[in-house]
Amino acid sequence: MNDSKALKIVKTARNIVLVNCLWLLFSIPVITIGAATCAVFYLNFKLLENEDAPLWENFIKGFKSSFVQGTVMLVFTALFGGCLFFIWSTALNSDSFIMKAGAFICSLLFIMFYIYTFPLIARYNNSFKNIFKNSAGMSFTYMWKTIIIVLLAAFFYVIFCWNFWTLVVGGVFIPGLFMYIMSRIVKTMFVQMEYHAETVKAEAEAAAEEISKETSDSE
């Protein structure tokens, strides 16, 4: 490994810890966790485009721009998550296969509709309807990447909650590390989606121009 690669790894690790600290700091009021999470994704997307992008300025910009939607999304997530917890508690205390199957389906729906909501808020200006719709669409379109993200989240959760020391030490970097890895995965999805949208738009404009030209020639 050459010095430039080693320096880049050190710089990335430093950024992950600093971004994690910003997330923890801005999550202290609890109700701001959603906006802080959106800010992390906004900042990570900027860092993936330019590793020298300013941390504080971009975090604050992402926090402010997504404050309302991020906060409301946190409430939605907490309500849905609370219902899911109740459903699983009931299902695990029941011998009914249907109850357990229903809990599993509800879990899949929760993942499908919510997993990409915060990155979507950080990246685009959209209605809640379209945010949920796009999250579900991405879950289906990029199913294997979605499975990887879910397994990764489960892995980090187990490590994080392993014992008191992993909870304390892991709190310094595990949330930031997970969101950084997720940002890298999601960024490739966004780039592909944006390229496809631009291609479709260009083809539509070319077709419209061709029709307009044929109409003018016929006249």
What does this structure look like?
- Helix 4 runs antiparallel to helix 5 (97-114), helix 5 (97-114) packs across helix 7 (128-141) and helix 8 (143-160) runs antiparallel to helix 10 (174-218).
- The protein has helices at 3-26, 33-49, 55-65, 67-92, 97-114, 117-123, 128-141, 143-160, 164-170, 174-218.
- It has 219 residues and is mainly alpha-helical.
- It contains 10 helices and no strands.
Compose a concise summary of this entry:
With 219 residues, the chain is mainly alpha-helical. The chain is built from ten helices and no strands.
Layout of SSEs?
Elements: H1 3-26, H2 33-49, H3 55-65, H4 67-92, H5 97-114, H6 117-123, H7 128-141, H8 143-160, H9 164-170, H10 174-218
Helix pairs in contact: 1-2, 1-10, 2-3, 2-4, 2-6, 2-10, 4-5, 5-7, 8-10
